[in-house]
Amino acid sequence: MSGRILIIDSVATNRIILKVKLLSAQYEVTAVSNQLQAQAEMDHDRPDLIIVDLADRSEDRHAFCAALRDDLQTSDIAILGTGTANTAKARLAALDVGIKDVLPHPIDDAFLLARVRSLLRIKNVNSEIWVRDTAGRALGFEDEKRTFAHAAHVHLLTASTAVVPQIIRDTADSYSPNAQILPLDRHVPLGDPLASPDLYVIDTTGVRDPQDALFRLSADLRSRTATRLATQLVIVPDGATEVAAAALDLGADDVVMASVCKAEVGHRCEMLLQQKRKLDKFHTTVKDGLKAAVTDPLTGLYNRRYADPYLKALAEKTQQAGQEFAIMMIDIDHFKAVNDTHGHATGDAILRTLAARLRKNLRGIDLIARVGGEEFLVALPQSSRDMAELTADRLRKVVNGTPFDLRSDQAPLNITVSIGVAVGGAETVDQFNTDAVCLLADGALYAAKSAGRNQVSFAASAA
Amino acid sequence: MSGRILIIDSVATNRIILKVKLLSAQYEVTAVSNQLQAQAEMDHDRPDLIIVDLADRSEDRHAFCAALRDDLQTSDIAILGTGTANTAKARLAALDVGIKDVLPHPIDDAFLLARVRSLLRIKNVNSEIWVRDTAGRALGFEDEKRTFAHAAHVHLLTASTAVVPQIIRDTADSYSPNAQILPLDRHVPLGDPLASPDLYVIDTTGVRDPQDALFRLSADLRSRTATRLATQLVIVPDGATEVAAAALDLGADDVVMASVCKAEVGHRCEMLLQQKRKLDKFHTTVKDGLKAAVTDPLTGLYNRRYADPYLKALAEKTQQAGQEFAIMMIDIDHFKAVNDTHGHATGDAILRTLAARLRKNLRGIDLIARVGGEEFLVALPQSSRDMAELTADRLRKVVNGTPFDLRSDQAPLNITVSIGVAVGGAETVDQFNTDAVCLLADGALYAAKSAGRNQVSFAASAA
Q1: Is the pLDDT of residue A429 over 70?
Q2: What is the pLDDT of residues B312-367, one digit of tens each?
Q3: Chain A 2-41, residues with CB within 8 Å of chain B CB atoms
Q4: d(CA A404, CA A358)
Q5: How far is it, in rounded angstroms, from Cα B138 to Cα A309?
């Protein structure tokens, strides 16, 4: 349950003080004095967070952190730095090697713990993406370009849009024309095409009660569809560590003091946008993955995995409503011979064309799925035997009525289908068993084939 | 960007006051005086949230709300009640028809807005589930029982575990033995098997500064892996609407005053557990769905959709490391004849058995995928020609060395495979093009078939 934290500090007193603070906040803490020990510890048990002193010059801490960030096995471990001079240069150098923030000595307890909570929270979300990567990578891979294509949209919120601080103006400029500056208390743009930002830069300097303002704002941003997934960088007045801690605890993804240099704000913005893109990509991958799982890639129709539970739900609903439904099994006649004569590419083209013709001639509420090589299943909700017969006949005719003109160097092919139909829900409760109805339709299909193909046959018990 | 809110109130003054409050919080608001108008409004544009007065007796508000909850088209619209007597009975009656909370007149502005934000936030999460339902339903359908099987785990946090309020004890009892009472400030159980709760009931009565305590607690719960997805019900001291509003804004899913009856707390707990189960199920569905999308259901091996991007990533990594890799195409000899003679069921059994034999004889880092009816692709990272030859020969022998004993009523079948191998990354940069290497392996497979089957053939250019 606890987060696992590894402290690397060559000064024993620092190690002990930090360890005690974190232990009392109920984390699992290990402290070591050098990188060799740290590596041994990490091989044994991977930490969620590393706090490393940057003061010790006997080892190259920056190279160590950069290596952790660049190794896929450790790149999701958050790193905090301590002990370095709190200069712009030192801070930028740390950010450059993937360190999330630098805490100067003496460490502010409240801010330390808020930063730890925030980094662990963000890491949890990232880990979720990571776990799914095995499957997700395969699905999202090709889309990388698409999701990275759109320019970052940045909304900058400030107390007064009349006197905008320099850092806000500079940052807005660097994301122009996709950035806009809005008043903190009226942050919802009206009818705006840029309404769904990737990043909020929230300037709390000049706000009377920054904590209270952040409190309302963060609850509001999290509650609105267009803004809830945006990342947030909060700028707090210099020295206002309490506000900074509160901002992190309220869900800000990062926080900086107002006097930091433009480069640091820029760097932090870029890190947050990168995080946002990763999240966006993950959401796309999940959506595409779910779709791919239930779709036949060749024809774009649903597959058996989708059809089976769909039929069960249909039967249940139909039974409740006291209605009938029909199931058709459709099979292409002599498909093997076509494949053998004209090749697989032609066979695939026939399947695609046929699928499109069938789908075009069904209602929106009907289901069509490809359930075998050349076999299709059609489910017609709220359909009597007569309606099913009309539909089956229409489908048969849209196939045999127009030859399949697939290649310019080849004469159009005459294709026919055999169709078996069974009606469920009409007579007995057993007929709400879709497996049974499918079997009946299968039998009818077999009868249609035996009787010479290119025809529709009805299951006997439903006749 | 704004949430859409529909107000139903027969008293014009109430409607106007409420509308102004919500408009100034930047929501889209429509107000109507009766259910008929409400229905027309909803047909036109679906709201995210409905605020309905329960005082008007000329229409049956309860039946109206129950109908909205029971209709799949509207069941995700959150409903708040106003204007009724603030009695246990009236509140329970409202909860019973799916109303989330009842706000007595005069309505507390801060609490109203916090409740609105909270409901919109929860609805956003639910909508995400809903959008994916089309695909997800098919995938998660069969699992419904599994995810609903585990008993709810409830952690109850209170200021003092020495003097536990009655309502906390009662609630703990009703979830016994899967409930435990913990101190609010030491809420992380040590090495506990029940460490991952579904629901927190957080009692803030008896806490000196409840807002501050909730602030730290909620940030902490959201940051820990085991607790971040748990739902939260916060109990606040009677009349402490400010604390209640803060609790909601901090991410609590629901909030009640301390003096409410046991039935109401029980009802709210059940609603939150239902919400949690839905979320759990969604997460499982996503995970299963992603897996299903890249897996061949018959053999359990990866499919082409997984293999293609995997190969690209492999080639890239191999190129960076200056290594070689090998790709094999494996095809079952005379599979069509086996299928025709012994039937499809036997054919499927052969595919399954063969897949298992091949997989058992490959390393963990090797990839095996079923890429066609009887065709398998194997990728061997960090493999020279010699290593690939050894592996290919081993695979061939584990197939032809032991007949396939599939059915007790049938003699074991002798099955053989032909294998084509190509090594990538050895000589030219072109060989990092996995499509090209696959084509070479395909060509080698064809050569193995032509030369009499049951043998391994290497692509010429990699020889």
Answers
A1: no
A2: 877 877 777 778 889 999 999 999 888 888 887 888 899 999 999 999 999 888 89
A3: 2-3, 25-26
A4: 13
A5: 6
The string of pLDDT tens digits covering residues A47-95 is 999 999 998 888 999 999 999 988 777 888 999 999 887 888 999 999 9
Nearest by CB to A135, which of B121, B223, B290?
B290
The hierarchical CATH code for the domain B132-288 is 3.40.50.2300
CB contact under 8 A, A118 and B215: no
Question: Is A390 at the interface with chain B, CB within 8 A?
Answer: no
Domain extents for chain B? 1-122, 132-288, 304-462
Query: Given this structure, which CATH class describes domain A1-128?
Result: alpha beta
What pLDDT score does B193 carry?
Answer: 53
For every residue of A405-447, which 3-state class applies, written as one string? CCCCCCCCECCCEEEEEEEECCCCHHHHCHHHHHHHHHHHHHH
ipTM of the complex: 0.73
Domain B132-288 and domain B304-462, same fold? Reply is no
Domain A304-462 matching CATH 3.30.70.270: the answer reads yes
Distance CA B261, CA B239 (A): 15
Asked whether A390 and A423 are in contact (CB, 8 A), the reply is no
Lowest mean pLDDT segment, chosen from A32-46, B9-23, B270-284, B393-407: B270-284
* CATH of A148-291 among 3.40.50.80, 3.40.50.2300, 3.20.20.70, 3.40.190.10: 3.40.50.2300
Q: Are B329 and B370 in contact (CB under 8 A)?
A: no
